[in-house]
């Protein structure tokens, strides 16, 4: 959103505000109003799709902080989401906590657990750190499958959240929990990257040795980035468990972790709007594959009766390769170019 000619900031408060013009306020209020009415305006399938989308946005937002802003590549986000889902199930079903208390606690617990996964970043980086986080994923899955408290291979069932006797037992009702949490987490991430902590993350990403020379504590900020990222994953896991009413290890595979990294690349590393672009594009791609696969199965019987799984991975790989080769800065870069063009219109430069 661009500002019209002649609009200037007169105070520091206006200069640092996220919403800075009446037009932006109007767009924001209108968007929130329409979003709040969606469960009564659109079919159930679309509401379910939006719930899935919002939870994925929260998860990838955390990955954006540690990988996009701090430069620490992590393939453990699916495992950390599993920790959040299982911890939420344990808090609510075994310890008798309410969902409203378990939601932040599962995020905090996952953040503390993530410090273990982030510890190798103090000595290694790049490819070696990526492999270390993959190892963390498999260790986490092994623990889930062998501990009695996690239900082993059976998983754990979860009761739907409730508030003052009102039970959020449908996707339409859960929408009013998931969407506000997603907006709150996005607002927090947007403000975080503009603070001293966010600038320190960027300095570590660009050149960790130079950042250390400038006085930035690499030990503190790398672990802080992992904690925040895992906090987001834990919150997403808690919401996912209460949406599906089950926490099961098959919901959190290494393939999911690869998809989350791919969403980040497609949307754009180091960009909050890029998270939305990447998640939306990849999720729409999933839906298109589900629609097209029956037609392809009828035309090409050798694909099998249900080719959606193979076609989905293939389509995702092609899209990811396209962005890595022709648009490595992601859709967020194109969005910035579009905004600059609109700001300068009708002039070319």
Task: Reconstruct the topology from this structure.
Elements: H1 12-16, H2 22-41, H3 44-69, H4 77-94, H5 99-118, H6 127-146, E1 156-157, E2 162-163, E3 166-167, H7 171-192, H8 196-206, H9 208-213, H10 218-244, E4 246-247, H11 254-267, H12 272-299, H13 308-326, H14 330-344
Antiparallel strand pairs: 1-4, 2-3
Helix pairs in contact: 3-7, 3-8, 3-10, 3-11, 3-12, 4-5, 4-6, 4-10, 5-10, 7-10, 8-10, 11-12, 11-13, 12-13, 12-14
Briefly characterize the structure.
The chain has 349 residues and is an all-alpha fold. It has helices at 12-16, 22-41, 44-69, 77-94, 99-118, 127-146, 171-192, 196-206, 208-213, 218-244, 254-267, 272-299, 308-326, 330-344, and strands spanning 156-157, 162-163, 166-167, 246-247.
């Amino acid at each position: 959103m661009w500002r019209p000619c002649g609009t200037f900031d007169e105070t520091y408060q206006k200069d640092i505000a996220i919403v800075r013009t009446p037009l932006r306020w109007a767009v924001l209020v209108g968007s929130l109003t329409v979003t709040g009415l969606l469960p009564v305006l659109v079919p159930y399938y679309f509401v379910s799709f939006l719930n899935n989308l919002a939870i994925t946005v929260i998860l990838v937002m955390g990955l954006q902080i540690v990988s996009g802003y701090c430069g620490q590549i992590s393939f453990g986000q699916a495992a950390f989401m599993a920790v959040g889902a299982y911890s939420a199930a344990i808090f609510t079903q075994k310890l008798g906590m309410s969902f409203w208390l378990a939601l932040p606690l599962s995020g905090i617990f996952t953040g503390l657990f993530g410090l273990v996964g982030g510890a190798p970043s103090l000595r290694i980086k790049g490819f070696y750190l990526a492999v270390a986080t993959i190892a963390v994923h498999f260790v986490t899955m092994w623990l889930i499958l062998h501990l009695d408290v996690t239900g082993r291979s059976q998983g754990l069932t979860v009761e739907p959240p409730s508030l003052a006797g009102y039970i959020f037992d449908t996707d339409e009702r859960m929408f009013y929990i998931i969407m506000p949490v997603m907006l709150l987490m996005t607002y927090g991430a947007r403000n975080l990257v503009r603070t001293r902590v966010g600038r320190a993350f960027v300095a570590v990403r660009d050149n960790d040795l130079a950042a250390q020379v400038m006085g930035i504590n690499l030990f503190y900020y790398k672990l802080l980035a992992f904690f925040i990222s895992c906090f987001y994953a834990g919150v997403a896991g808690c919401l996912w468990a209460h949406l599906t009413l089950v926490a099961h290890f098959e919901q959190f595979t290494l393939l999911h972790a690869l998809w989350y990294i791919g969403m980040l690349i497609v949307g754009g590393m180091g960009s909050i709007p890029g998270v939305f672009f990447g998640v939306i594009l990849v999720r729409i791609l999933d839906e298109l594959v589900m629609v097209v696969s029956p037609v392809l199965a009828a035309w090409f019987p050798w694909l099998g009766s249900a080719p959606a799984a193979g076609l989905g991975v293939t389509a995702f790989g092609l899209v990811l390769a396209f962005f890595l080769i022709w648009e490595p800065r992601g859709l967020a870069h194109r969005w910035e170019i579009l905004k600059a063009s609109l700001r300068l219109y009708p002039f070319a430069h």
